[in-house]
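ARCHIVE CARD
Drawer: 12
Card no.: 0347
Subject: one protein chain, sequence and derived structure
Cross-reference: see card 0346
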Amino acid sequence: MMAQHESTHDGTKAPNEIEALRQFAQAAGVDLQRIPTHVAIIMDGNGRWAKARGLDRSMGHQQGVETVREITTTASRLGVKFLTLYTFSTENWNRPAAEVAALMSLILTAMEEELFMRNNVRLRVIGQTDRLPAEVKAAIDGLAQRTATNTGMTMVIALSYSSKWEITEAVRHLAQQAANGTIRPEEITEDTIDQALTTCFMPNPDLLIRTGGEVRLSNYLLWQCAYSELYFCDTFWPDFDTAAFCQALADYQNRERRFGKTSEQVTNEQA
């Protein structure tokens, strides 16, 4: 794991730290000129990480927060514009009540304002936030407001989120517009649907990373990831560090994104 040090006393990022990270990434095979604009992550494996060490599942979630801090700093400094983290799914409400309560408490402590300000990161939230405990929702809304003018990377946390819920809500919205006569069915396009989704403020993910060894999307950004590059690794989220993130970026950059075209077409367009 590459250590992430504190910033200078005035809150700016120390140039030598950023340069050290850039050199580290380049040594890992990352082309700094081709950093994906939007990286989405399914942070999986906290519970299994803890179980393997004979610890309570909550300890895995706590260690996972440290990984969030490291990857947020790394992604921001390497030039990622949007980092979307699958923090808590609608299905997670079905977990044991004690674990859900611990997760909600951890979300409160994880919203560390200094991390966002130090890295010039703004916070956005997608999901059914009305289901959250009042104190959690208030803390997240407050942090989103206080970081709204930051101009660096946008961190999006998917909280009480599911893609099927999001798409259903978009369909209901468009159906109501059609019923009201403000839009005709034949006017509905992919762009219309894009704008009806909770993610309308950002581009679709270029790269989706899932840690923990599972190979599925788990109801996460299903519409948005139609052409995302998917990267699955066995590393549990608490062990996913800067080196692992750089490995995922390098793997992404070694792929040819064709969007239905042939390799020859892509090569000619890039010439």
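Annotation on reverse: The longest strand covers residues 82-89. Confidence is low (pLDDT under 50) at residues 3-11.
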